Amino acid sequence: MNYRHAFHAGNHADVFKHLTLTRLIALMSRKEQPFAYLDTHAGIGLYDLQGDQANRTGEYLEGIARLWNDATLPALTADYMRVLHDMNPDGQLRYYPGSPELARRLTRERERVLLNEKHPEDGRLLKDNMKGDRRVAVHLGEGWHVPRALLPVAEKRALMLIDPPFEQLDEMQRCAHALKDAIGRMRQTVAAIWYPVKDQRALKRFYQDLAGTGAPKLLRVELLVHPLDTPQSLNGSGLAIANPPWGLEEELRELLPWLAQKLGQTQGDWRMDWLIAEQ
Ligand SMILES: C[S@@+](CC[C@H](N)C(=O)[O-])C[C@H]1O[C@@H](n2cnc3c(N)ncnc32)[C@H](O)[C@@H]1O
Fold this sequence. Notes:
It is built from ten helices and ten strands. The protein is α/β, with parallel strands linked by helices. Bound molecules: S-adenosylmethionine (SAM).
């Protein structure tokens, strides 16, 4: 396990994933009934963009830094940007929230935040960063076991993020399996899988696997920062979202053209369609 998310915190892929996560939480919060948040590959929870790791790559400069001082941000970015401003009250962009911190800050008092991280050192940092919040539980186990270990939840509503590092060749297949497990155990689970847009052949197979998971509905959304045929580069990233809450598709239709223009490097673009349409 070599991957450390601190090198990539706040990059274009994080902005896309985290902004979407804030909208998923907001839309799920429209119903009174609480939901449980599950993060299979949680990372350390929050990141110092002035730290050695983030600074060595500077990836956040082409990510969150492009939004930080923008005076014309769409209203749909408000929850995301509020967390960032609360974490950086002096107006200098330094601390960046990972998915656990966003979930912890944006879920309601009666909601549980269940986090899992396998890397021993990152797991310790995650525990440290989340300590003192009794709504948060941190597990230091195998992310791929989370759907079977924790679903179904007592709340009967769940939002699950599946966000592996894609260091191993089989991780796309494992994502599809994890989604199948989740849907098998709790059909109404809202699950978002993040994936890199890089190798078109691998993606084709991945889309097929996702389409075979039996999810009632599955939305595919991709944000590109380079043309698809750019060799050996992260050309963008995607989210496959099972059972998206009502309103998400419309919101993303509004956000993505803006985001593509804001985060595009050689060329910004986006696409969205249904891998599994409602029956
Ligand atoms: C992309 S990062 C997660 C970022 C985080 N979800 C966020 O958005 O802030 C992936 C994380 O998965 C962890 N990881 C790698 N293999 C794992 C596994 N098999 N089970 C659980 N965690 C794993 C890595 O240590 C890393 O922290």
